[in-house]
Amino acid sequence: MSEKLTGSMKDDIRVLKCFLKINGMYGAEIAKQGFSGYVCEVLIYYLGSFENVLKKISKLQNNEMIGESPRKFESPIVIIDPIDRNRNLGAAISIQNVTNFILIARNFLKKNSISYFKEKSKIKIPVEIAKNLLIVNFTYKKRSDDIVYGQIKRASSSIESQMINEGFNVLRNDAIAYDETKASLLFLLESLTISKNEIRTGPDVFSGEFATKFININSKKSKLMWTDKEGKLQSLQTRRYENAKTYLNDLIKNHIGQSGIPKGLRNDFKKGFKITSGKDKQSKSVKKSISKLITTDDTAFSTN
User: Fold this and answer.
1) What is the Cα–Cα distance from 172 to 190, expressed in whole angstroms?
2) What is the DSSP letter of 119?
3) Which tens digits make up the pLDDT trace of 10-28?
4) 260 φ/ψ sector (left φ>0, alpha ψ -120 to 50, else beta)
5) Is 281 within the bounds of a domain?
């Protein structure tokens, strides 16, 4: 395909790569899940210039296809490989990178500022939000970045689901590997503590044996049981955990088999882990991830 690119198009490819790098969206590796160098070439090939790419991305619709293919694909952005029209290059790009590109493209087209090509200045971490951030730090047996990032991203996603099921509202999560054998899972919560009471909703009373089963299972644990306006059974009970850090520690230490943490990481966790707060002292790599999680990216969300 490179022979079909003109000199000016090659210049636009370099500009697009630089734009994506500076704004944290460049790179095909699992750690980034961004726009690869080849994807940049393909976008310029299809759309002709850096400006046209931004115009297209700024108006992108969910699951919109760039290029032509006899197949249908399901991903936030569909970019057809011109060499193999049955291949969707957009499948490996995360929804976060796609939506960030859309927002930043819209702002850049309004401002056309050189600031979008400059490294971001150091960001001050807001303590009020950082206090609701939990970080699980551990070391792992050295292996390839793609393998360990696949594992820690699955671990982070699975633990988030477990915490939500337990009643904790997880706003965002992240997973990073650094210094060759160190890794951290990060969870930003709405609050580290929740009410000691929880309401469990059952089937409606008309469901017969299902309603009876719900009553039998929950009657001894209930402080109060009633039916709501829709006729569904409700049970007020005491939560097992009110503190997210306590729950997270117990989940990993005593119930790792039910945590969703991949088997390949379990021995690493069993050797030891430490749960800290966003306010505690952290390594430079973890601080960078914390900053990304709990600060607003002005290049994407600026209204000026």
Assistant:
1) 9
2) P
3) 999 999 999 999 999 999 9
4) left
5) yes
